[in-house]
Amino acid sequence: MDSEYSHRKLSHLRKVLERSGPFCRPDFEPSSESLKFLMQTCKILVIGAGGLGCECLKNLSLMGFRQMHIIDMDIIDLSNLNRQFLFRHKDIGASKSETAAKFINDRIPGCNVIPHFCKIQDKNEDFYRQFHIIICGLDSIIARRWINGMLVSLLIYENGILDQSTVIPLVDGGTEGFKGNIRVVLPGLTACIECTLDLYPPQITYPLCTIANTPRLPEHCIEYVKVIQWPKENPFDCSIDGDDPQHINWIYEKSMERAVNFGIQGLTYRLVQGVVKNIIPAVASTNAVIASICCTEVFKLASSCSPSLNNYMIFTNTDGIYGYTYEAEKNINCLTCSQTIKEIEIKSIYIKLKDLIQLLCSKNDLQMKNPGITANISGKIKTLYIQSVPSIEEKTRQNLSKTLFDLGLRENSEIIVADVTTPNTIMLKIKLLKNS
Amino acid sequence: MIKLFSLKNAKKDGESPKTGTQKKSSAAQLRIQKGFVILDINELNLPKTCGTEFPDPDDLLTFKLVICPDEGFYKGGRFIFSFKVGPNYPHEPPKVKCETQVYHPNIDLEGNVCLNILREDWKPVLTINSIVYGLQYLFLEPNPEDPLNKDAAEVLQNNRRVFEQNVAKAIRGGYVGQYYFQRCLK
Ligand SMILES: [Zn+2]
After folding, report:
1. Pfam families recorded for this chain (chain A) (predicted)?
2. Comparing C-alpha atoms, which of A121, A52, A11, A125 is closest to residue A298?
3. From CA A410, how far away is CA A413, in angstroms rounded?
């Protein structure tokens, strides 16, 4: 192993890690330990083994990282092969994560990439807690929000102070055709994904009346079939599956009829696929640029050799090359990361729900008016009481005279409270007073 | 600037992961999405013409909105909308359908509703409340310029009295043109 550190192929890394320089972080200490840390200890999770994921695995493994996991639920499709270069024609139909891991492990001696062929939601806190850094190349906002929520929930606060050893940085890359962005999130410290949800453009939609009555574009015809005609005629007795050629064909035929009726040109099968699956053409060079910046950020975070991107960068190469970096600000009302879980002390778990509500209204630091309460009871959110909505009030009124114990709450259970007095929900952890 | 790993105590594998928390997946996400929703639901500030119905109080993501306009063309009617809040809320708007057949320029006979904030003008800062007010406004000011039911829009534009009569007929239950409308009197 020691001979690997001194191998010629890593000499460029040693130049960065073993020497100081004017652009280094002030607290950076050049040493040979850094490279050992990268190669032996630092554990990276790559989320997504698509266009960005393939680039990231390649970059990270050539940068010296050896302990990596990759997670992706997809299988390889013919259309991936132009840019997802760890896959070959024979791999079509195989798991992306498994194929990518095997390719890297075979190619780079000593590399230990562990694949997970599943959804990110299938893994729990213990899985995510083992990583030093997470790098994410996803095309789904739901998945981004999920991993962001997971990393925030791993934070531990003691007396309101964040324990920084629980921070797992998230480096997130995204591309759309010739545009891309990179962001570095230090959960609990810098703006998280939810803080800046409006940075993610919503899916393109067209006014319903336009697609229904005055279509002008082939996209309008496709949207019409997708939004109005499909639910009405329900041709296959199920919702649209963008990967089912029969479904796409049906939508293609119906939207073609419509396009002909309205004298609209330019409707193709590929366009139908694109609109239905919301595909934005992937450009290999954009992926390469974004992935390289993401991996550089991972390297900087892992080695402290240089200050991190602060904290959002956009890149486009439509007309020449343009890049811009700015600091996305933390939203103090962010539902995800501004919440530190508070504790509420009660004298017994056998007090009634109405006593708890009384406490929420009378406690000096809360002084709520009419709190709506839900609770996380063995992984499921249950509504305990919401006064402001009559139909819920009626159905949950009986809970008021039940004890917290009977409602399924225990010490350390979390309740989620919304009230007019705060712009945000408040998370409270139930604690029992010591002397009772 | 925080230094995340001092090399000496950066080891993670040595940590004993807390066992016993064998939940399949974290409730974190659940919490966030529901966090938005409980906040939205709790602050629902309904006009007196509107009410909500939650068939299952534990499921705050599925509910119905009932609008009983007390002025305008639709006074005396009772119109039910179904709301479905998806996993990407508030990045994406809830899905809203009108369950009552209604003779309305901006609502078609399948219950699709043409309201800008339900589609192209949705923004994450908007809430369920915004949609409730938007829908209520549709009954006060039906908009013939952007029709979904073209026949109704034409009548409204050409002859408000006939439109008024058609609406009344539909609410009482009966045929307007070739379409039969079910009675939806309050
Ligand atoms: Zn945040």
Report:
1. E2_bind, ThiF
2. A52
3. 5
Contact B169, B163 (CB under 8 A): no
Query: Count of CB atoms within 10 A of residue A65's CB?
Result: 27
Residue A121 near residue A133, CB atoms below 8 Å = no
pLDDT at residue B16 in the model: 41
Query: In this complex, how many residue pairs, one in chain A and one in chain B, have their CB atoms less than 8 Å apart?
Result: 209
Query: Cα–Cα distance between B175 and B177 in angstroms, integer?
Result: 6
Contact B60 A374 (CB under 8 A): yes
* Residue A217 · residue A204 · CB < 8 Å: no
Interface test with A, best of B6, B7, B53 (most A CBs within 10 A): B7
Q: Which two structure tokens, joined as six digits, stand for A358?
A: 């009384």
Question: Of all helices (H) and strands (E), which one includes residue A356?
Answer: helix A353-362
Contact status, residue A242 vs residue A275, Cβ threshold 8 Å: no
User: According to CATH, what is the number of the domain B29-181?
Assistant: 3.10.110.10
Q: Are A282 and A174 in contact (CB under 8 A)?
A: no
Distance from residue A45's CA to the centre of ligand 1 (Å): 21
Q: Locate all alpha helices (DSSP H) within A24-90, ordered by sequence.
A: 33-36, 51-62
Chain-centroid distance, C-alpha A43: 19
Lowest mean pLDDT, pick from A136-150, B26-40, B143-157: B26-40
Sheet holding A43-47, edge to edge: A112-116, A67-71, A43-47, A133-137, A170-176, A179-185, A312-316, A322-326
Whether A55 contacts A292, CB under 8 Å: yes
Whether B124 sits inside 8 A of A126 (CB atoms) is no
pTM to 2 decimal places = 0.81
Selecting from A186, A372, A379 the residue whose C-beta is nearest the C-beta of B23 gives: A379
User: What is the rounded CA–CA span in Å between residue B2 and residue A369?
Assistant: 40
Site of tokens 């009124």: A397
Residue for token pair 């760890």? A86
Nearest residue of B to residue A195, measured between CA atoms = B124
Rounded CA-CA distance A393/A69 in Å is: 47
Strand, coil or helix: what is B126?
A: coil
pLDDT at B18: 41
Give the SS3 label for residue B165.
helix
pLDDT tens for B119-176 read 989 988 888 999 999 999 999 999 998 899 999 999 999 999 999 999 999 999 999 9
Cβ pair A395:B54 closer than 8 A? yes
Other beta carbons less than 10 A from residue A131's beta carbon: 20
**A356, A401 contact by CB (below 8 A):** no
Torsion of the alpha carbons at A138, A142, A148 and A153, rounded to the nearest 10? -140
- H helix intervals, A192-325: 208-213, 218-224, 230-233, 245-261, 269-277, 284-303
Region for residue A367 given its phi and psi (left: phi exceeds 0; alpha: psi -120 to 50; beta: otherwise): left
Burial profile A179-196: b = 16 or more Cβ within 10 angstroms, e = fewer: bbbbbbbbbbbbbbbbbb
Q: What is the pLDDT of residue B1?
A: 54
The interface pTM score, or ipTM, of the predicted complex is: 0.78
H helices, E strands: number in chain A: 15, 15
pLDDT, position B33? 59
Q: Check if the beta carbon of residue A413 is closer than 8 Å to that of residue A377.
A: yes
B42's tokens? 């709790």
